[in-house]
Amino acid sequence: MTTKNATIKDVAREANVSVASVSRVLNGLGGVTPETQKIVREVAARLNYIPDNAARSLITGRTHTIGAVLPDLYGEFFSELIRGIDLAARARGLHLLVSSSHDGVADAAAAVRAMRGRVDGMLILSEYVDAAFLEQNLPEKLPAVLLDSPVKNTRYPVLNIDNRAGAIAMVRHLVEAGHQRVAFITGPKTNFDAQQREKGYRAAMAKYAPDAPLVIVDGDFTEESGYRAARELLARKPRPQAVFAANDMMAIGCLYAFKEAGIDVPGDIALAGFDDILIARYVTPPLSTVHVSIADLGRLALERLAALLNPTDKTPASVETLGCDIVIRESCGRKAGVTVAPTKPRRVSRPSPT
User: Fold this and answer.
1) Are strands 121-124 and 65-70 parallel, antiparallel or unpaired?
2) Other C-beta atoms lying within 10 Å of the C-beta of residue 234
3) How far is the C-alpha of 223 from the C-alpha of 77, rounded, in Å?
4) Burial status of residue 337 (CB atoms within 10 A of its CB: 0-12, 13-18, 19 or more)
């Protein structure tokens, strides 16, 4: 049998299931066992079966596409986040449409509006999104999940990282390793993750090094800002004993500046980051950091959204916080491979709007 122009009946016959089962699998409607889903997808791929999406959308009222609006598409954090979202979407027969909102609130609004009518639901991670933004730009009936957001709207589930606890754990480790003067490089001022990480630094210094001055230098999550911050810190007297950057990209920029100035890490100054992007373990010395399961964040966000697309799902909206822990490598001057102070994930349920 030729694989060209295969029909849904061909897929059903080859997979030895009903047409209805094939339809449910390819439309992501559930009600089919994982084993049957696997068989149907394999047969559909082998027969080169291509569903008529236009006709299917008319019948189901769905596009089988998910939208993701992110602050940026550059860097390992976002590529890993998109990977986690995409893998979970593909497993459910869903396609992914991605846009960025790095140019401001108007750009974020344009990205959201451009997806209306083209997606069945949205994942939104943007520092410009608040309750008013959602009301103005997101249709009431369009399901959405918010990531790393302070928004407390009972309509939308929120998935956050425990940034504050992660930062506290890292500062505590640095102080207990003998570094009283710990400097902090911030992220963007309006970024929720950056705000929570700075709060964690401040709280930990107040508790574990109350006599040490706070040393805070501005950054924006880029390598360049980490490089500039390091140059500024090296000019200070006395020089910090340790530097904690609010993300790994800035820590890597910082590391380059230290090496350029002939400063040994960790001999002269200890260094730590946040996120545990892949490259963190391959720089020299390998970077101590707060580990975030970035791909899992994307996967869980897609799973929460997929649940919202199921009309039978009555799970109330919630704010779910993912735990993190610190991974100690050579940049802190301690034995590598030690995982310290895990924070537990938690969920706070909220009643859905009536």
Assistant:
1) parallel
2) 18
3) 13
4) exposed
User: How far is it, in rounded angstroms, from Cα 252 to Cα 240?
Assistant: 17
Q: Which residue has the tokens 């893998």?
A: 87
Beta strands in the chain (DSSP E): 65-70, 95-100, 121-124, 144-147, 158-161, 182-185, 215-217, 242-245, 270-275, 288-291, 318-322, 325-328, 338-340, 346-349
Q: Quick check: bond before 266 cis, omega within 30?
A: yes
Question: Would you list the DSSP string of 272-306?
Answer: EEEE--GGGGTSSSPPEEEE--HHHHHHHHHHHHH
Helical (H) or strand (E) element with 323: none
Pairing, β 144-147 against β 182-185: unpaired
Contact 224, 75 (CB under 8 A): no
Total-model pTM:
0.78
Sheet holding 95-100, edge to edge: 95-100, 65-70, 121-124, 144-147, 158-161, 318-322, 346-349
Amino acid making up residue 191:
N
The conformational region for residue 193 under phi > 0 = left, psi -120 to 50 = alpha, else beta, is alpha
**Nearest-10 Cα torsion for 343, 253, 192, 127:** -140
What are 304-354's pLDDT values in tens digits?
999 888 766 666 678 889 989 999 999 998 654 445 445 555 544 444 443
User: Which tens digit of pLDDT belongs to each residue from 271-294?
Assistant: 999 999 999 999 999 999 999 999
The whole-angstrom separation of Cα 332 and Cα 267 is 9
CA angle 318, 321, 323 (to 5 degrees): 155
The DSSP symbol for 186 reads: -
Domains defined along the chain, listed by start: 65-161+295-322 (3.40.50.2300), 163-293+325-347 (3.40.50.2300)
Q: Is 91 exposed, middle or buried (0-12, 13-18, 19+ CB in 10 A)?
A: middle
